[in-house]
């Protein structure tokens, strides 16, 4: 069944338990204006609430994934505009919504992911890049520092030396290098990109959804914990996972020597 939701700056559809969010301002390489930041946050909330959704794909329309903050909007701001408040009320809500959505979010990085677009790409749980894609911290070119969670996320993913280099040089890191550095999980040739994304999305959407969500929670929370706390917390999460129907089915299927039929419950 396909469900579509009306948004001005996004395309949103649900098919076969996969929600697909497409950033849809291709004339700007999907730059984020205020409406798109708000609608993307709302769309992730919607996908999180919808029990029929078991995996989420985020991608961009046209040749870019996202070029980050819409700089035409930035230029038209009046005196006294607070960027800090803009970040807190906008990008922070979006990034936090993505991280607290306890379903796998697959970033289908179809083209350049720059500035806050790179931040949003890195808030996905798994990234498949087209070989035409690239990652770029555009901020230093306009005299800003990385934001939208990048100072937190990027050194964790690729280490301080590479992260700081990306920040200072604002160089475009091509897909092949992104794979080597651990910024993406897979790179696909252009002709195979859609099928590769669909393959991973189908796999995630037929898995043990509750366990996938709790794993995300456990890994993110562990960043603030010592080993004792992390062990204790994962025991607590395992208790929750073990109450799921999918756990019963997983064990039963193993003993019956057949593939598990998970329902995401
Ligand atoms: O303000 C706050 O609240 C703080 C938050 C900041 C977060 C940020 O994201 S800051 C960083 C903002 N982003 C950038 O600085 C990147 C700007 N874009 C670029 O550097 C380049 O466009 C790319 C390297 C991403 C791609 O280059 P290329 O040559 O493939 O494409 P292009 O020709 O530059 O762009 C195509 C069109 O998109 C073009 O419009 P036109 O000439 O066809 O009418 C271009 O102006 C437009 N575009 C690209 N990026 C943006 C944009 N329009 C508005 N805002 C953009 N960010």
Describe the structure.
This protein is α/β, with parallel strands linked by helices. It has two domains: 3-205, 2-enoyl-CoA Hydratase, Chain A, domain 1 (Alpha-Beta Complex); 209-255, Lyase 2-enoyl-coa Hydratase, Chain  A, domain 2, CATH 1.10.12.10. It has eleven helices and eleven strands. The mean pLDDT is 97. The chain binds ligand T3D. The site of ligand T3D has 22 residues, from helix 2, helix 3 and strand 7.
Layout: helices, strands, pairs:
Blueprint: E1 2-5, E2 10-15, E3 18-23, H1 34-49, E4 55-60, E5 64-66, H2 71-75, H3 83-100, E6 105-109, E7 112-114, H4 116-122, E8 126-130, E9 134-136, H5 150-158, H6 160-169, E10 173-174, H7 175-181, E11 186-188, H8 190-205, H9 209-222, H10 227-241, H11 245-255
Parallel strand pairs: 3-4, 4-6, 5-7, 6-8, 7-9, 8-11
Antiparallel strand pairs: 1-2, 2-3, 9-10
Helix pairs in contact: 1-3, 5-6, 9-10
Number of E-type strands: 11
Fourth-level CATH superfamily of the largest domain:
2-enoyl-CoA Hydratase, Chain A, domain 1
Average pLDDT = 97
What CATH calls the topology of the largest domain is: 2-enoyl-CoA Hydratase, Chain A, domain 1
Query: Order of strands side by side in the largest beta sheet?
Result: 1-2-3-4-6-8-11
Query: What's the CATH class of the largest domain, please?
Result: Alpha Beta
Poorly predicted regions: none
How many structural domains does the protein architecture include? 2
The biggest sheet, with number of strands, parallel, antiparallel or mixed sense and barrel status, is:
7 strands, mixed
Write out the distinct hetero groups bound to the structure. Answer: ligand T3D
How much of the sequence lies in strands comes to: 15-25%
Shape: globular
Number of helices: 11
The CATH architecture of the largest domain can be named as Alpha-Beta Complex
Integer-rounded radius of gyration: 19 Å
From the N-terminal CA to the C-terminal CA, the straight-line distance is 19 Å
Task: State the helicity in percent bands.
Answer: 40-55%
Question: What class do helices, strands and sheet pairing give?
Answer: alpha/beta
Order of helices and strands: EEEHEEHHEEHEEHHEHEHHHH
């Amino acid at each position: 069944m396909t469900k579509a939701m009306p948004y001005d700056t996004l395309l949103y559809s649900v098919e076969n338990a996969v929600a697909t969010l497409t950033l849809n301002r291709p004339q700007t390489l999907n730059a984020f204006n205020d409406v798109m930041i708000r609608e993307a946050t709302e769309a992730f909330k919607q996908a999180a609430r919808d029990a029929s959704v078991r995996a989420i794909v985020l991608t961009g329309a046209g040749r870019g994934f996202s070029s980050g903050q819409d700089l035409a909007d930035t230029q038209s701001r009046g005196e006294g505009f607070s960027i800090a408040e803009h970040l807190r009320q906008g990008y922070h809500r979006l990034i936090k919504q993505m991280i607290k959505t306890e379903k796998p979010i697959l970033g289908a990085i179809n083209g350049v992911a720059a500035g806050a677009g790179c931040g949003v790409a890195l808030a996905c749980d798994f990234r498949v890049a087209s070989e035409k894609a690239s990652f770029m911290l555009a901020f230093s070119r306009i005299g800003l520092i990385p934001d939208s969670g990048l100072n937190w996320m990027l050194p964790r993913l690729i280490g301080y030396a590479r992260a700081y280099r990306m920040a200072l040089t604002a160089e475009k890191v091509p897909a092949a290098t992104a794979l080597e550095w651990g910024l993406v999980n897979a790179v696909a040739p252009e002709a195979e990109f859609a099928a590769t994304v669909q393959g991973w999305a189908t796999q995630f959407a037929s898995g043990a959804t509750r366990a996938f969500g709790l794993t995300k929670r456990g890994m993110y929370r562990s960043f603030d914990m010592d080993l004792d706390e992390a062990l204790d917390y994962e025991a607590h999460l395992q208790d929750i996972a073990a109450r799921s129907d999918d756990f019963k089915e997983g064990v039963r299927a193993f003993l019956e020597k057949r593939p598990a039929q998970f329902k995401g419950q």
